[in-house]
Amino acid sequence: MTAKMAVVAHGGAGPGPERQSNLQAAVDAASRLLVSGASAVEAAVEACVILEDDPVFNAGTGGVFRIDGSVLLDASIQTSDGRVGFVIAMPDTPNPIKVAADLLDENINGLAGEGARIWADERGHPKREVEGRAPIEGDGDTVGVIVRDSTGSMACATSTGGCSHRPPGRVGDVPLPGSGFWVNERIAVAATGEGEEITRALLSYRVGEMADSDECHSLEDAMKWGLEKLIQGKAPVGLIAISSVGPGAGLSNTEMPWASWIED
Ligand code: ASP
Question: Which CATH superfamily is domain 6-262 in?
């Protein structure tokens, strides 16, 4: 099968247009990789690494402190051929998405905390204190990337330091399948914003199912339904999605920076 290659990425549920150029750099890198023959997983991971290394985003290097001052990072990746990898509250790991990606072909899906770090040590993932930064007031700037490659395979990579003002053991939506991300053979979705609300709604899975149903005519319709019907109150939440054809899309109830690319 051949498909039009495509990329869509977000820079969190609220930092607005000032993050657009930082985000565009990651989308451009992913599109160049795809054009040179990279797989969806390779392109999604590389774009996510660029965003983790950029200190303006709440992921990797710029992960926000937990309330005890620690920097504990979550990341996840899922593919349209049914593989998944995620890490939860991982210490001393500037690029947790690489550890999550290393789990794709293992017989375990997810690892948490010190155990995740021990496993990463055994696999040679660099161990380094992550600088982090002070909690953010207002909506966060977590990252997510979805890629479709020339074979039609899709991969979704997400990474965060977690919402601000959360305790060290807190688990947000980003490492939870169906909550912060969901991918099947036809659709890929990633969420950002208030993780507790996203998790309660099982948002990515349900938006993906809606996008796949006859009730729905576009990715935008499905995301609008998810934000309006599944998210309670004023929780800041944004979504990106891609299907097996056409360009990726983004929608948020805040000023979410998002960018996309599709092959000519
Ligand atoms: N959803 C992330 C979390 O709750 C934060 C974010 O997207 O800004 O950890």
Answer: (Glycosyl)asparaginase (3.60.20.30)
